[in-house]
Amino acid sequence: MTMEELQKAIELQYQSKGIARCRYNALNKVFTFLKDYNSKDNAVFLNKSKEELKAGYAQYWNKKLNDAENQAINDIYKYISTKSNFITAKKAANKEVKIKNDKPNSTPLSDYKIGLSPWLGDSPKVLILGTMPGDKSLREQVYYCDTSHNSFWKIMYSIFGKKDDMTSNHDFITSHNIALWDCVQSGVRKGSTDDGYDINSLITNDIQSFLKEHPSIKTIVLNGKGKGSKKRPSTTFLFKRFFFTIDFDGKIVLLSSTSNTCSLTFEKKLEEWSVISELVK
C-alpha cells in the first residue's frame, strides 16, 4: 500500500464517520511530513513507534502537535495495525462508503483525488487559487501540467518572459512572488472535467491558516471567475461556498479561467491576466 493509498483509505473512513474537516487538514499535514521520507510504502511505520513519529512531526513543523494532528497520527497507526484494513484497490473501488450527505455511494478509489501541496517561495505576494489539479497534474505532481488543455503556463511565460529550460516551473513561478494552491484538498472527481466533482465529498484546503502563516500575501487571485454551480463548480463558486468567512485584508481578484474550455481567446486571457505583473511588485 502506497502513502497515497493509505491516506485515501483513512479519509474514506473519515467520510463514513462524518469526521470534522480539521482532522482532514491535520491528516494532510502528517502525510506531507511522511512523504519527505520518500517512502513508497508503509515501511516507515515498522521501525518507528507512534511517539517517535509524533516527536519527529513536531520537530519537522517546529511546533507542538494540536489535538487534530495528534489524533490523525493515532488514526494512521490504528489503521495499519488492523491487517484486515489493507484491502486491495479493487476491493476499495467496490466498497460502499458514505459521503457527507449520508447516502450510500459506491465510489471507485480511482475517482477519489488528493490535491497538491502549495508551491511558494520565501515571501509570496500573490496566491493563485484553482479548483483542483487534473489527473495529469496529479500524476506528475506539477500544477497545470496538461498544457494541451490549460494555458496557464503559456500565459505566465508571456507575462514574465519564457523560463530558462533548466528552470522548473516551480522555481519559475515562485521567483516572481507567486504561490499556487487550490480550493480543494481532496474529494471525489471523475476524470479532470469541471462536471466530474461530487460537491458533497469535497474537503477544502486550510486557506485561512496558510494566509496567517504567510502574511506577505496581499492578493488572492481566483483562476476562474465564472458563476459555477454545484454540478459544475468554478473556483469562484468554491471560494464563495467554503471561504466566505475568511479573514483577509488584502485584495481578491477574479480572473477568467486559464482552462481551454473557457471561450475567451488566448489574447483576451493574456490581456486580463497581465494584471499579475503589477500585483507581484
From TrEMBL:
It comes from the Bacteria. GO terms for molecular function: DNA-deoxyinosine glycosylase activity. The keyword Hydrolase applies. Residues 122-227 form the Uracil-DNA glycosylase-like domain. It is an enzyme of class 3 (hydrolase). Keywords: Glycosidase, Hydrolase. Its EC number is 3.2.2.15. The keyword Hydrolase applies. This is DNA-deoxyinosine glycosylase. The lineage of its organism: Bacteria, Pseudomonadati, Bacteroidota, Bacteroidia, Bacteroidales.
